[in-house]
Design a protein that fits this description.
The structure holds three protein chains of three kinds. Chain A is mostly helical. Chain A has ten helices and no strands. In chain A, 42% of the residues are buried. The N terminus and C terminus of chain A are likely disordered. By secondary structure, chain B is α/β, with parallel strands linked by helices. Chain B has a domain of 131 residues: P-loop containing nucleotide triphosphate hydrolases (Rossmann fold), CATH 3.40.50.300. Chain B is 34% helix and 25% strand. A six-stranded mixed beta sheet of chain B has the order 6-7-8-3-9-10, sandwiched between helices. Helices cover 32% and strands 24% of the residues of chain C. Chain C contains eight helices and ten strands. The N and C termini of chain C lie far apart (42 Å). Classes of the chains: A mainly alpha, B alpha/beta, C alpha/beta. Chains in contact: A-B, A-C, B-C. At the B-C interface, helix 7, helix 8 and helix 9 of B face helix 6 and helix 8 of C.
């Protein structure tokens, strides 16, 4: 123990952001749930007599070009956007993490295959691969999710693999082996806890990216198809009306921006909370 | 009585280095057999071979009259609980994400059904952990701490507690005090001797510190470049029969 | 007295780590500072070269060859540090730049202290390597190609290259095994006799010093608890801590701790 250093409360700084983010996300979730229970307007019912109305008590955000209530579509669109993003993320994790564990700890043929596959996948930027896959599979939100999963699982597997490689050399893993623990048990008890922190940070930052990806793809017509309310798709549909009713683009745009911002804030907080370097310094 | 017999053990690494070169020795029940050598002499490789975490090229390792060098993991499983190891670096030997009590309980929880303990008795996890901590002279609140909250000497005591928890027959101690400061070193060596006597353990004590080896062991082997160049009882350390290399080591200390 | 510390204290605003340490080292002697990790001994050695990290404050006086080191301008200090006062550290790999050869290290060091003659520099380097028992094939090797013992010997060669008055060796054998460590110490002793350099040797293990040191000081939690001649301290320790320190380390038991053979009673 030589020099002392002033301890910076980084996590504290981001804690405020994280709490704010969390509160907002809870708020949004509550509103979504409310929407389920008290759906006042059918989001897909077209009513050409009531198109492009402004704000009113009955339609707080007005109606869109087909007479549908914008607020309902916004809220449901949120469910779609965030819901499918989470789905893509979770499936990518469920594939990537076990793969990374086995690849990093047991090595062997799984590792060799994975490394070659991984190199192939990572040679292309994920957006391009997602476009190609979507093109091959056809438009639709399900195919888009599939494309994203296929691209994202590799980065989680790699992250897990490198963490596992580093830790499995340590004596405590050796001692677990000496004590007869099975590889499954070692991966679960000793290696998984090390991986959780890193994965959580990457995942929370990725959530924002996936949301943007899904919105962007839906915007260009490769993701969610009409009449499904999805923010990116809504942006696209509102384009012709930008001069007369710009708010029809602004609402979904703002929604996307704010949710992505919130997930990034959460990601920053996790990154500080799970600061590996800090632990190692102790 | 013969606990461990090693015969003509050979281990060469890819790349040509022969770490263990036709090594043979015996270890008796209840004794502490010391192994002295420089870094690079092959002593740590030997330890790993004995624990079957390193493959061997040829030779035999006989534990209680049973040859274990050819066994696969499944066959080896019932014998693993008879040998434990304590490594040099206590920080690497404890999972930083687990509490001390979870690390200490690992061997017991693994072998629980096949054990018959004479010294420790299991009533509950907490009580068992307390017994173990007491036996290595650590306070009971250590159980719920994490490794980074303990000093080097305390962490090493934890790894020792873990290794004695299933009352093995043999413990391989690979430079157990090299990472500790002088005062902790002395205390840990004394603790190890006490434990050996109370729990009727046998030790293979590996170190580059001849003085520590002499303090701990009844018999001493000297290893150089993968071979055993000298083997003697502790009382004969200063005898003129000693190998020149041994004499060189003596002159250093 | 080549080095004198008077009431030196080092610490942060909240806490003192080194407390009122005074000691003096005579020219040409081997002085040992013994203490456990955390005792403040390394901080003290860094303070002498004015290499403390900026958030630490220091009080007291440090006199090197009658110059008050704390009053010197940075430029003057740079002239002393590395030339009249040199260091060897515990971390032998970390003391070298991984992507420079051993020869390049020597070159840089000499150039930094004003040696402009390239042939002369190389000659001095080869001579220095030979003085520590290494041959010139090491000139073009990289640090990772050498063993710990070899690297420490290179460090000794470099630190004595410019004929310093005081060499501070901070735990230089702690990371080596006994045999390599012994060889390094024997070499250092030999070079000390040849150059007449003063050595401040910092260690946690008094057994390293019993052969070479003439005087020593024992440090505990930032304070010097005992100091004096080697034989007096090791064979007749006064302070409790000194006694514990001596008892803790196992010895082969021949002779007294300071190395004197016990006289057979007649």
């Amino acid at each position: 123990m030589t020099g002392l250093s002033i301890r910076l409360p980084r996590a504290k700084k981001h804690r405020f952001q994280a709490v704010t983010a969390f509160v907002f996300l809870v708020f949004f979730s509550a509103v979504f749930i409310y929407t389920f229970l008290y759906l006042r307007h059918d989001p897909t019912l077209t009513d050409l007599d009531r198109r492009l109305l402004g704000m009113s008590l009955q339609h707080p955000f007005g109606t869109d070009q087909l007479g549908r209530d914008v607020m309902t579509r916004l809220l449901l669109g949120g469910q779609q956007t965030i819901g499918y993003s989470l789905l893509a993320l979770i499936v990518a994790l469920l594939i990537g993490v076990p793969f990374g564990l086995i690849s990093g700890y047991q090595r062997g043929i799984v590792d060799r295959v994975f490394m070659r596959m991984g190199d192939a996948f990572l040679a292309f930027p994920d957006t391009i691969v997602a476009i190609v896959l979507s093109g091959l599979l056809g438009p639709g939100i399900g195919n888009l999710v599939l494309a994203i999963v296929m691209v994202k699982w590799v980065s989680y597997a790699r992250l897990v693999r490198s963490t596992v490689l580093a830790e499995s050399q340590k004596d405590y893993v050796l001692i677990a082996r000496i004590n007869g623990l099975s590889p499954r048990k070692i991966m679960r008890k000793h290696l998984l806890p090390h991986v959780v922190g890193h994965v959580l940070v990457l995942a929370s930052l990725d959530l924002g990216k996936i949301i943007l990806l899904i919105s962007a793809f839906s915007y260009i017509g490769l993701g969610a198809q009409p009449p499904m309310p999805e923010w990116g798709a809504m942006l696209n549909e509102a384009r012709p009306y930008f001069e007369t009713r710009p708010e029809l683009m602004i609402y979904p745009g703002l929604a996307i921006v704010s949710v992505v911002l919130l997930t990034n804030m959460l990601g920053d907080y996790f990154r500080d909370r799970f600061d590996v370097k800090k632990e190692e310094r102790q | 009585m013969n606990l461990l017999s090693v015969e003509h053990l050979m281990k060469t690494f890819p790349g040509g280095k022969t770490a263990v070169n036709n090594l043979s020795f015996q270890l008796n029940k209840g004794e502490c057999l010391g192994l002295v050598g420089e870094s690079g002499s092959g002593k740590s490789t030997l330890a790993r071979c004995l624990l079957r975490i390193e493959s061997i090229d040829s030779g035999s390792i006989i534990l209680n009259d049973i040859a274990i060098e050819q066994m696969n993991e499944r066959q080896l499983y019932p014998y693993r609980k008879k040998i434990q190891i304590v490594f040099q670096n206590p920080s690497a030997a404890l999972n930083p994400k687990l509490k001390i009590k979870d690390s200490i309980m690992e061997p017991y929880e693994q072998y629980r059904k096949e054990l018959s303990l004479s010294h420790f008795s299991y009533t509950s996890k907490e009580a068992f952990v307390q017994q173990l901590l007491e036996s290595v002279e650590l306070p009971s609140d250590v159980a719920n701490r994490y490794p980074h909250e303990l000093s080097g000497g305390q962490r090493q005591r934890v790894t020792i507690a873990r290794s004695i928890s299933i009352e093995p027959e043999l413990i391989v101690l690979d430079e157990p005090t090299a990472s500790l400061d002088v005062i902790s070193q002395g205390a840990v060596l004394n603790l190890l001797t006490e434990l050996r006597e109370t729990l009727h353990l046998s030790y293979l004590f590996i170190s580059h510190d001849l003085a520590a080896v002499k303090q701990m062991s009844q018999r001493i082997m000297v290893m150089k470049d993968g071979r055993i160049v000298d083997q003697f009882n502790r009382e004969h350390l200063f005898s003129t029969d000693r190998d020149p290399y041994t004499k060189e080591l003596i002159s250093i200390f | 007295m080549i080095l004198s510390l008077e009431q030196v204290s080092i610490g942060t605003r909240e806490k003192k780590i080194v407390k009122n340490v005074s000691l003096s080292i005579r020219e040409g002697e081997w002085y040992a500072l013994v203490g456990q990790s955390g005792s403040g001994k390394s901080l003290l050695s860094q303070a002498i070269g004015r290499m403390l990290s900026p958030n630490l404050q220091m009080e007291g006086k440090i006199f090197f060859k009658d110059k008050d080191l704390l009053s010197l301008a940075p430029k003057e200090m740079r002239g002393i540090r590395g030339q009249k006062l040199s260091y060897i550290f515990q971390d032998y790999q970390g003391s070298f730049t991984p992507f420079r050869t051993i020869g390049q290290h020597f070159e840089e060091y000499q150039k930094a202290h004003g040696n402009r003659d390239s042939k002369g520099r190389k000659a001095k380097t080869i001579e220095a390597l030979e003085s520590v028992g290494l041959d010139d094939t090491l000139y073009n090797r990289y640090p990772f190609q050498l063993s710990g013992g070899q690297l420490q010997r290179v460090s000794i060669a470099m630190s004595l290259l410019l004929s310093p008055d005081l060499l501070i060796a901070d735990e230089i054998t702690t990371a080596l095994d006994s045999v390599s460590g012994h060889r390094v110490l024997e070499l250092l002793a030999k070079r000390q006799k040849e150059t007449g350099c003063t050595i401040l040797f910092i260690t946690h293990d008094w057994r390293h010093v019993k052969r070479y040191a003439s005087r020593l000081a024992v440090m505990k939690e930032g304070e010097i608890v005992e100091s004096g001649g080697k034989h007096r301290i090791l064979d007749h320790p006064q302070h409790e801590y000194t006694k514990r320190l001596i008892q803790a380390a196992p010895t082969l038991g021949k002779g007294l701790p300071s190395g004197i053979q016990e006289v057979e009673s007649v």
